[in-house]
Amino acid sequence: MTTGTTEARGEHSTSGARQLRELFARPGTVRIIGAHNPLGARLAERAGFDGVWSSGLEVSASQGVPDTDILTMSELLATASSLAAAVEVPVVADCDAGYGNAHNVMNMIRRYEAAGIAGVSIEDKRFPKVNSFIPGRQELAPIAEFCGKLRAAKAAQSTPDLMVIARIEALIAGWGMDEALRRGEAYAAAGADAVLIHAKGSSPEPVLRFLQRWTLPTPVVVVPTTYHTITATELSEAGAKMVIYANHGLRAGIAAVTETFASILRDDRTTGIEDRIAPLATVFDLQGMPLQKQHEAAYITPYASRARAVIVPGPPTAPGAGLLAEQSTALRRADIESVSATAGAHGHAQEAPQDVVVLPAQADAAGAVLALDDTYLAGTVLVSDDVFVEGEPLRRLVAAGADLAVLVDVSAGPGTPRRTDALPLALDSEARDGRRIGGAAGSAVLAATGPTADGEFAGAAACSAEGFTALRQVAEKRRANGSEATLADLLTDLLAAGHRVRAVEIGSGWLELRTPQDVSRATELFATRETGR
């Protein structure tokens, strides 16, 4: 196990670097763009960039500090590592001046390589550096000192894959083209895998002249932040291998967020900008929620919280889902993942709360079951809309873990006459002095019997994938016969077909909604309990 883990970790740390090497070996330009968090990296990857630049400027700005070596190596490494973990494309890290001398550079290389970074860029400035576009102090390190850093970096690598990019700041510091070329040639001789020629004028001419005069096989990287009129194709034709768009995501975000915030304050609401901002669904997708849901279903979520609930049409004479909001709340308290309601032919579920998904109208419970897709195979709770069931009985129902389980009210005791519209059920549990006790496997429903049964169906059932398949089968038979069916009818058919049904015995915690007056009284009861009167 330990060996496999080590191999997997090594694979992660070198795969991005190998990708970057392959990109450099292919014809054409390598285009990467800056990011300062995993979300930005994923946007870059989805846009089609070849890789991500872990931008020192962006990371510093996101922390509200200048890009002048204020953040530590550990802080910048944490960001670069999070980018590499979030995307499949290679990540190249802006490592400023290497965070110190050659000793610091060697430590940096070991840690960045272990984090899965594909390449690092080190600039030939004195520590602490100042961002290249800030006027004033731009101090360069001696060539010999910087070449020592590059040799130390290459010596510290554990594999040959990681690319070390030597960033030449001679044009930024005003030292001229000859100095830039002299430094670049020395850095290539010291082992740099690529050189980055940096410039800050509005014209690409200095960079094009450098490329024209560069004769070594070491590839050249450019950063057209200020000389933005030239295309990546033109830079490639001039000899550049990689083009870095270093900070455009940050700058675009600042502009868009500023405009959005101003619009909200101006309009006193968000309606005016809703069509210009990403919907929450896009946010969830970028976060990786679809994959997490797959993992949750496969590895984490137990049967209880994987269950979905569906409120199905009851008898045509029932008043409909008058307590739909309250029933939804009770189902959520029972750790139900999602709640849906099937609109019935007689007006059920017409005004559903926002957390309830309204399914297409069906004439009866059989039609509702047949209309459900295979996502409900993971576990389904069915509640008839002519009842209200509290959270605790529902939680017990789901926790039963049987292929088929139903709530059975045994409060009236065995042999007690029941209403003509109730579904009486005979159980295999025994009644002793008004109390009931089941066997080692719990209580089971034996049959739907006459008025002197042990209990009555309380309008709620739960089923596993196998149970849901059986429920579909009896629903299909009802549909083939052309007869409508309630949930109680489907339960009767399951018992008649010989399916084992677990009984979850309760003595309270549910209401029957036979008339509109029942719904009104129950609604008043909930309102009173909510306000505490």
- State the name of the first-level CATH class of the largest domain: Alpha Beta
- DSSP summary: helix tally: 20
What is the average per-residue confidence, as pLDDT, rounded to a whole number? 88
CATH-level-4 superfamily name of the largest domain: Phosphoenolpyruvate-binding domains
Low-confidence stretches: 1-13, 345-349
Percent of residues in helices comes to 40-55%
Strand content: 15-25%
Q: What is the CATH topology descriptor of the largest domain? A: TIM Barrel
The count of β-strands is 21
The outline comes out as elongated
Rg, Cα atoms, Å: 34 Å
Written account of the structure:
This protein is of the alpha/beta class and 533 residues long. It folds into three domains: 2-247, Alpha-Beta Barrel (TIM Barrel); 255-296, no CATH class; 302-531, Spore Coat Polysaccharide Biosynthesis Protein SpsA, Chain A (Alpha-Beta Complex), CATH 3.90.550. It has 20 helices and 21 strands. The strands form four sheets. It has an eight-stranded parallel β-barrel with strand order 1-2-3-4-5-6-7-8, surrounded by ten helices. A five-stranded mixed beta barrel has the order 14-19-15-18-20. A hairpin with a 2-residue loop joins strand 16 and strand 17. Helix 15 packs across helix 17. The longest helix is centred in the first third of the chain and has 24 residues, at 2-25. The chain is elongated. The model is unreliable at 1-13 and 345-349 (pLDDT under 50).
Summarize the structure.
With 533 residues, the protein is an alpha/beta fold. Helix content is 43%, strand content 19%.
